[in-house]
Amino acid sequence: MGYKFYKLLYLLPLIILIQIFLVIGATLLVSSINVYFRDIKHLLNIFMVIWFFATPIIYDIGIVPGKFRYLMIINPMTVFTILYRNIFYYVNFPAQLGY
């Protein structure tokens, strides 16, 4: 009874650290743009909704048609979603991150 501790969980702090750096960089970029353009917060709300659905969180990347696959390639959060899914759901080493 209980949870079996997998060796892959040692990768989790590294993945979280890299994701934190990405989020901090994006936050600094948007906040510096917001100083000059005050309406960026309204555009950011729309962008975040689109970004949520462009990230394969609630669906697998394999079901995306080929003509929309470029959205997955340019999305930096797709890599983290694949890494988290491989570690927690499939319990295998994320050997290949190529799309």
UniProtKB/TrEMBL annotation:
GO terms for cellular component: plasma membrane. GO terms for biological process: lipopolysaccharide transport. The lineage of its organism: unclassified sequences, metagenomes, ecological metagenomes. It comes from marine sediment metagenome. It is found in: Cell inner membrane. This is ABC-2 type transporter transmembrane domain-containing protein. GO terms for molecular function: ABC-type transporter activity. Keywords: Cell membrane, Membrane, Transmembrane, Transmembrane helix, Transport. It is a multi-pass membrane protein. The keyword Repeat does not apply.
